[in-house]
Amino acid sequence: MAVVNVMVNGRAYTIACDDGEEEHLRDLAGHVDARVRELLSSVGQVGDSRLLLMAALLITDDMLDAQNKLARHKEQLGATHDEMDERLEQAEVIAAETLEAAAKRLEDVAASLARA
Predict the structure, then answer these.
(1) pTM (2 decimals)?
(2) Residue 92's CB: how many other CB atoms inside 10 A?
(3) How far apart are CA 94 and CA 86, in angstroms?
């Protein structure tokens, strides 16, 4: 277990994390601090608890938007994948029919040559 000191809104916080996760935790705290600073510039100092809550809500909103976009993209890719499967099946049917027609023509030519 590791202990990391991070700064958010000019205040130091000591947080425990798994070994090796220290830098990631610092990055996360930096992201929270950036959102808090954005809020400070728009709403002013409304107290640490309220600022942190507002930042958490904004970050959660961003995350949910990203998840929704990802879900939409997955749906689109799924539809595209299904369309490609359908086109591939159609191409296979056309290829099989073309090969059967060519084989029939070869058989006809072979039969004609055999009679000649």
Answers:
(1) 0.61
(2) 10
(3) 12
